[in-house]
């Protein structure tokens, strides 16, 4: 057989032998390696031929290691164990450099993703995974932290306040121009796009009208379960959306949506960064967390 730098036989033969010696069974070794018992036998015969010695004693009910086989197995088992531990250390080190952050689809699209991109440009060695979903993040140990409106019900999670938003009706420019200065009664008569979310912390149209003193009927003509979809419908002139001014600032600045004054309400809850405590976060996760907080304070998001 050809030799390489360490004068070793092919690693496939060593791997087949190690598995067969550990199980003392060609059949079990074949199952572990996802090959046939004949393939394992062929590899071991090739290794024995290369070494010029028998490694197994074939018996009617199985196999046993010869003295040379025991010596080779002890060396391989020890070496493979060290290699395995080294690989685990390398994988763990790589995992430390990965951060996972969650948010709703709207938060991801409107400001979290741009913020993460800016972070990546400054720290390209850190891999950031984003998870976006419009339902609460429950039982997700793979997430370092997530952005949430209102406090999470899990008191064990760390809560870092980000900002408090303002709630105002928004619509496409044509509808907003028509309703400029409209009364609450006029707004209630419009097609209102309602967000139907599992997360009950989000302020609804009825709650918004009630807080402003309106006690009339609030029709429910249109429901969606995604705030991103609600915003897209409003852009197309399909109705009014309860707008979170800071959250949708990019769409307001671009003119895709326009706030309808003068009615405005301070949101009852804040947006929070929720997740593991700082001491349980990796260095990379703490760096991203600090980045997001600083961007909020600077007004970038």
TrEMBL record:
It comes from the Bacteria. One of its GO terms (biological process) is DNA-templated transcription. The keyword Transcription applies. InterPro entries: LysR-type_TF_proteobact-type (IPR058163), LysR_HTH_N (IPR000847), LysR_subst-bd (IPR005119), WH-like_DNA-bd_sf (IPR036388), WH_DNA-bd_sf (IPR036390). SUPFAM superfamilies: Periplasmic binding protein-like II, Winged helix' DNA-binding domain. GO terms for molecular function: DNA-binding transcription factor activity; sequence-specific DNA binding. Keywords: DNA-binding, Transcription, Transcription regulation. Residues 9-66 form the HTH lysR-type domain. This is DNA-binding transcriptional regulator, LysR family. It comes from Ruegeria faecimaris.
């Amino acid at each position: 057989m050809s030799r390489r730098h360490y004068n070793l036989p092919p690693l496939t033969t060593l791997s087949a032998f190690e598995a067969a010696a550990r199980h003392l069974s060609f059949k079990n070794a074949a199952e572990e390696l996802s090959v046939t018992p004949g393939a394992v036998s062929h590899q071991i015969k090739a290794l024995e031929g290369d070494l010029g010695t028998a490694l197994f004693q074939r018996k009617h009910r199985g196999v046993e290691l010869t003295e040379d086989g025991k010596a080779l197995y002890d060396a391989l088992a020890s070496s493979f164990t060290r290699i395995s531990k080294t690989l685990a250390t390398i994988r763990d080190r790589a995992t430390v450099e990965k951060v996972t952050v969650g948010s709703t689809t709207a938060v991801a699209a409107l400001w979290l993703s741009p913020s993460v991109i800016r972070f990546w440009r400054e720290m390209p060695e850190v891999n950031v995974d984003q998870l976006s979903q419009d339902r609460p993040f429950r039982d997700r140990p793979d997430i370092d932290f997530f952005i949430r409106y209102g406090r999470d019900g899990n008191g064990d999670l760390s809560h870092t306040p980000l900002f408090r938003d303002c709630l105002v009706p928004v619509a496409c420019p044509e509808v907003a121009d028509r309703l400029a200065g409209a009364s609450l009664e006029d707004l209630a008569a419009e097609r209102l796009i309602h967000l139907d979310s599992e997360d009950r912390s989000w302020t609804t149209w009825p709650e918004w009208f009630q807080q402003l003193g309106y006690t009339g009927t609030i029709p429910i003509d249109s429901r969606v379960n995604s705030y991103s979809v609600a915003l897209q419908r409003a852009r197309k002139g399909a109705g009014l959306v309860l707008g979170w001014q800071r959250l949708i600032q990019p769409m307001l600045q671009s003119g895709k949506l326009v706030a309808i004054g003068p009615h405005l309400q301070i949101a009852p809850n804040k947006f929070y960064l929720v997740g593991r405590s700082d001491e349980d976060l990796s260095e990379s996760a703490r760096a991203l967390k600090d980045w997001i907080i600083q961007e909020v304070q600077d007004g970038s998001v």
